[in-house]
Amino acid sequence: MSIRLLALIPVAAAISLALSAAVDAVALPLFLDTTGTILATALAGPAVGIATGVVTSAVNTLRNPTFWPFVVVQVIVALYAWGAARAGLFRSFRTAVPVGLALGVIAAVTSTPISYLVFGCTTTGGIALTTALGKALGLPPLGACFFGSFVSDFGDKAVTFALVTSVLHALPRRTAARFPWALRAIGVA
Amino acid sequence: MKSLTLEHASFWYPATEAPALRDVSLEVAQGEIVALVGALGAGASTLLLVAADLAPRVTGGRLTGAVARRDRSGIVLPTPWTQASGMAFTVWDEVAFGPANLGWPAHEIARQVDRALEQLELVPLASRDPATLSGGELQRVIIAAILAMDPGLLLFDEPATELDAAGAQMVWRLMRRLAGEGKAILLATSALDAVPDVADRVVWLEDGAVRAVGAPDLLADVAVCEAGLGTSVATVWRASGLPGPYPPTVAHAVRRWR
Amino acid sequence: MTRLHPFTLLTIAGALPALAWILPAPAGAAATAAVALVLTLTPGASPGLTGIGSSPGWRPGLVVLRAALLTAAPFWVFLLLLHDVPTTIAIGLRITTMVASFVWLVAALEPARLVEAMVAAGWSASVAYLFAATLTAVPMLKARAQRIAEAQRCRGLSPRGGIASRLRALRALALPLVLSALHEVDERALALETRGLRPGIRRTTLAPPHDPVVERAARWVLLLACPAALVWRLL
């Protein structure tokens, strides 16, 4: 791994962790905690993306210990983003947003067993409350838990994909050309 | 003895058609300070990156021509917060980062670090966390960190941008001391008033090519002043309508006046 | 306790939650939770990663214990909302173990010692860099995000309005932050290269943490206890 890609990883991880300030300022129920992972993958490939995801989880765990079991989700997000980058699906919002919505489903499917088995679906207050709502609607426990994760992941991943698409298109060509996957991700190379 | 030699060097950044450097030939001897001056985008920073063997190796792009280095180089970039290692939690450790990466023995690292901290007047800050320092303090730490690696060729890209007047004066004095010890120094700066007291030679870059080379009084040249790269004294002298040649410094102006 | 080798701290913080999940609830989880909570009372906690417990004595231990209990408390409330009492106790004790172990780890682990331990153990300098550099980059980017948010507020950014306008506002906040951070990647790479950080280098350790044989043995015992407990549980 080149020094430039090594330098990208902490920056991308820090982006994921710092975007909470932006989210708070607009009062939206989003996490954006996979932004750095998806961005790093779209710029530099799956190895860099996975490393970014693992580092993000590790540092996030220092703030909230319950993040560590979800490191698997970050790895799956990186692999999914790699597929999207290979197919040039970051070329516009019209392709990126549906792909992000699909990732929301996959992320919810992946995180539900972890949330259910490890945390009894209480990973966050929001997930706990939507799980309670699901139970009240008659869903089985695992289904209610999936409902809780899905509600939080669905929109979050779509917005994340849209944001990464904006970033990739806003990068000057000279800068983008220095990252191995950036131009392919937006369908140029 | 030449520390750095560029012969007909041209460089293109990735995905750009126009070269950032065009047919540049330049030599820097041991014990010499050469200042690069030019407008924004003239290519001074790129020239330093080529001299440091960072372009195209790290930046990507294409280099033609020949570059020969006799000594190990160290480069100080303009923005200190991007140059902090991120792995050090005290100033002492930050300065020791480079020598430790070179694999030097611990006692040699300690000797070089202590010397560099003294040279940059950083001893009182040795146990501070670099994240708590001001921009000027951090820039001095970065300079110390490069010096601690004992490079023979020193490359400075706008080293005084974050420094106050006293800090900048300290750095200029340090450069003259280092040149006296035999270091070769290549300096890109927009602090034109400091250049006559610091540099032995001035290279004027324009659009990536060498427009002129000369002694520091080049910064009082008519063409240089017309390009906005003259010293303050020369610029004011010219604007006042006084006859040339324009004096580059106050001392020159006083001598002319008398 | 905090002068333990960083790898020992990491092993304890990793093994306790693992054992909490492997050992039969509620007794196993109660035991591990008790151990984790007692750890938070360790006197003489170092500043660690978040500055919790930065002076010697018992008081820093109470600060750490309080942080652990406050972090774990909401989980108990939500568990009661969703589950019966025995399930709540079982999962609650496990989560309390995890939370208390990590809160203790954050208070006790000095990043500089961890970096030195990794280098001394022969880990690649790149791996040590990844963790440490992220730790130092996060507060810097967070501060920059705050400044961008304040600047945009001066220009009329408001959390009120429909979803579409808030998403546009989010883009206006996030894009400058991300682009400026990416632009700095190049400069960081140049700086690391010039300071000699390259893949495969053998870095000198400046202050390797003391690693007695007893601690190394204890780490192996803890690490082996987890699969052993799992096997015992399955049989």
Element layout with pairings:
The complex is a heterotrimer of chains A (189), B (258) and C (235).
Chain A: H1 3-18, H2 20-26, H3 35-44, H4 46-63, H5 71-86, H6 93-119, H7 125-136, H8 141-170, H9 173-176, H10 182-185
Chain B: E1 2-12, E2 21-29, E3 33-38, H1 44-51, E4 62-69, E5 73-76, H2 91-101, H3 106-119, H4 135-147, E6 153-157, H5 165-180, E7 184-188, H6 195-198, E8 201-206, E9 209-214, H7 222-226, H8 232-239, H9 250-257
Parallel strand pairs in B: 3-7, 3-8, 5-6, 6-7
Antiparallel strand pairs in B: 1-2, 1-4, 8-9
Chain C: H1 6-22, H2 27-39, H3 59-82, H4 85-108, H5 111-120, H6 125-154, H7 163-194, H8 213-234
Helix pairs in contact in C: 1-2, 1-4, 1-8, 2-4, 3-4, 5-6, 6-7
Account of the 3D structure:
The complex is a heterotrimer of chains A (189), B (258) and C (235). With 189 residues, chain A is an all-alpha fold. Chain A has a single domain, classed as Arp2/3 complex 21 kDa subunit ARPC3 (Orthogonal Bundle). Chain A contains ten helices and no strands. The radius of gyration of chain A is 16 Å and the shape is globular. The two termini of chain A are 22 Å apart. Chain B has 258 residues and is of the alpha/beta class. Chain B folds into two domains: 2-216, Rossmann fold (3-Layer(aba) Sandwich); 217-258, no CATH class. In chain B, 34% of the residues lie in helices and 23% in strands. Chain B is built from nine helices and nine strands. A six-stranded mixed beta sheet of chain B has the order 5-6-7-3-8-9, with helices on both faces. A three-stranded antiparallel beta sheet of chain B has the order 2-1-4. In chain B, helix 2 packs parallel to helix 4 (135-147) and helix 3 crosses helix 4. The longest helix of chain B is centred in the last third of the chain and has 16 residues, at 165-180. The N and C termini of chain B lie far apart (40 Å). In chain C, helix 6 packs across helix 7 (163-194). The longest helix of chain C has 32 residues, at 163-194. The chains are: A mainly alpha (189), B alpha/beta (258), C mainly alpha (235).
